[in-house]
Amino acid sequence: MLPYRQVGRSGLHLSVLTFGSALTVGTEDTRISYAQSLIDQAWQVGIRSFDTSNNYGLGVAESLVGQALRKYPREEYVLATKGSWPIGPTPYHRGLSRKHILWAFEQSLRRLGAEYVDLYYAHRYDPETPMAEVVRTFNRLLDAGKIRYWATSEWPVEALEECHAVCDRFGLEAPIAEQCIYSYAVSRTDTNGVRAFCESRGIGVLGFSPLAQGLLTGKYRHGIPADSRIAKSAQIGYDKTAKIYEQNRARIDHFTAACERHGVSGAQAALQWVLRRGVLPVVGASHPQQLEESAAAVTVDIPEAFWADLSSVAAVLP
Residue 170, exposed/middle/buried by CB under 10 A (0-12, 13-18, 19+)? Predict the structure, then answer.
């Protein structure tokens, strides 16, 4: 069983790893058998936190995740989904307006086949909707018992500051967590004020793409594997993995070379790097065995010489 971690100063605890369904369940593969194999493996290794969104496969991921989790006791896991990302062509299909969020949430709940969601994310900041409306809308869902907590994802620090100030002013429940992209390759929340603000307010931080979409595992060091995300970019309609490498080449190459020098698993070292900074990783997987490796990262012994090797040049890397 994986250990649990408290989310900020809230009462919610998550398994130290969260299973994320972006770009795999409902996008890369739309079969329930595929989703079931991944979620069954996640459960077996001790993951009890599951993350999806209404825009992953335009709702298909929610349907598959909901079906795959149905065999497990509802009180024994945390189910998270998200709303606000554009899912259609009109203003009614995106953003954080009360009109959109209340409709989008009901659609998510129906697809998940759930009576409630434990954690509901405002999936990107919406500058067109007044913050008081955003806060009151999510609190309305809390008061109705349809969500247990709410959170934000990839919000700029200025928006987080305004959000929490509004919550304080009106005595309303504030987001308990911020989910952001976070890895050794991409850690801009360390420098843009987001993590500092979260720490000052007792807000939990979850990091998605902790392996930099596989780039930190070293699997691309000698070419592009046939079953990799880059190779399947046209199939899944996603081409950002190659761009992440182009923009962060020096850090990625340094990390994977250090892993080779010290005989360390890139996947496990990348996850431990995130955990050592107090961030809870959201891990994806294309194959069940990848979840076994991810779970082992929590307890595997990585030599201090490796961490020293990383930090020795980290200050001069871009």
Answer: exposed
* Among candidate residues 82, 236, 220, 275, the one with its CA nearest the CA of residue 283: 275
pTM over 0.70: yes
Active site residues: 56
Options 3.90.1150.30, 3.90.180.10, 3.20.20.100, 3.40.720.10; CATH of 4-314: 3.20.20.100
Per-residue pLDDT tens for 254-296?
Answer: 999 999 999 999 999 999 999 999 999 999 999 999 999 999 9
| Cβ atoms within 10 Å, residue 74 | 12
What's the pLDDT band for 237 if we cut at 50, 70, 90? low
Domain ranges of the chain: 4-314
